[in-house]
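One thing: can you check what follows?
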Amino acid sequence: MSASPTLSTTSSETFDTAVAETASLMRFDVMDRTARVRSIACRYGPHVLHDVEVLELHLARAGQEDAGPAADALIARFGGLAAVLAADRAELGRHVAEEAVSHLKLVRETAVRVAAAAIPDRPLLTTSGAVQIYLKTLLAGLPREEFWVLFLDRKNQLLLSERLGQGTVDHAPVYPREVLRRALEVGASALILAHNHPSGDPTPSRPDLDMTKAIVEGGRALGVNVWDHMIVGGARVLSLKSEGLM
């Protein structure tokens, strides 16, 4: 008498997996949008999410109603995740609740601090990549120009990073005398200058070059070196030093 056929272990496991996958997809169909995005993040990791989905989960975490449509609106209004996080609180408040605004600002501050953590106690002239990441995190997406200075000690290690000017969409007032006065106050031996171009184009303007030259010449007279001036435009960071413009 022949033995009755049995289902192999491998076939059974394949069938069970297929059933589980089908059930999972069916659950996705009935889930609301945010729950579906959260499920995908838990299952495959947050790195698979699009920027708008990352934003959606942050908004949901902050208690924002209709987090998905709100994330869509923010990305459409500001043009990208970095610009959303860097936007003015008042502008963000036109689209989401105050709790969500505060949460987004906390997310951005966390990112800036993580980038800054790679800088202290390291000679910045040999870690330009870390400096560029920090400046891009700090300045990318801002709606107006900001001028920052990284003050360095004699070992070219960071003493502090400070904003010394804030202006309009295409101009930030910078006074070379004030930059150098602040350098002397904090005991800096060298500087790295930085500012952003909200247009997304980091190409330096004539005023950018003239201002840089004035600070370089004034610093030389005081024994303060200016090692570079970096301009952040969109996802790019342009170094005047590398471009031979200073």
